[in-house]
Design a protein that fits this description.
alpha/beta; globular; 3-stranded parallel beta sheet; 5 helices; 3 strands; single chain; Alpha-N-acetylglucosaminidase tim-barrel domain-containing protein
């Protein structure tokens, strides 16, 4: 209710929401697509400082697709934020390559 009031206090078309932690805890699912406000599905991967080969590949493969094709979707884009150049590049390859598909990228 509070989120809906906040989002609707700004004239429609004047704000785009960043769902920054969408690959772990997608708020678009809990908020009915941000109550009609356009949003960006984001992959904020390592928060600057975590040097490891880590990524929830099945979620990165399916998350943006699920958000884009879900009923009444208001997703306008996906985005990735890489704060450390030594991160696991396979994670970013999967997200970027998946932009061109209407289905999940196969992990096999």
């Amino acid at each position: 209710m509070v989120l809906q009031a906040l989002l609707h206090s700004v004239p429609f078309g004047k704000m785009i929401v960043l769902d920054l932690f969408a690959y772990v805890k997608p708020i678009w699912e809990e908020s009915s697509q941000f109550y009609g406000t356009p949003y960006v599905w984001c992959l904020l991967h390592n928060f600057g400082g975590n040097i490891e080969m880590y990524g929830i590949l099945d979620v990165i493969s399916s998350g943006p697709v699920d958000a884009r094709i879900s009923q009444n979707s208001t997703m306008v884009r996906d985005a990735l934020f890489n704060f450390l150049h030594l991160s696991f590049s396979g994670v970013y390859d999967m997200l970027v390559c998946g932009r061109w598909n209407d289905s999940e990228t196969s992990l096999a």
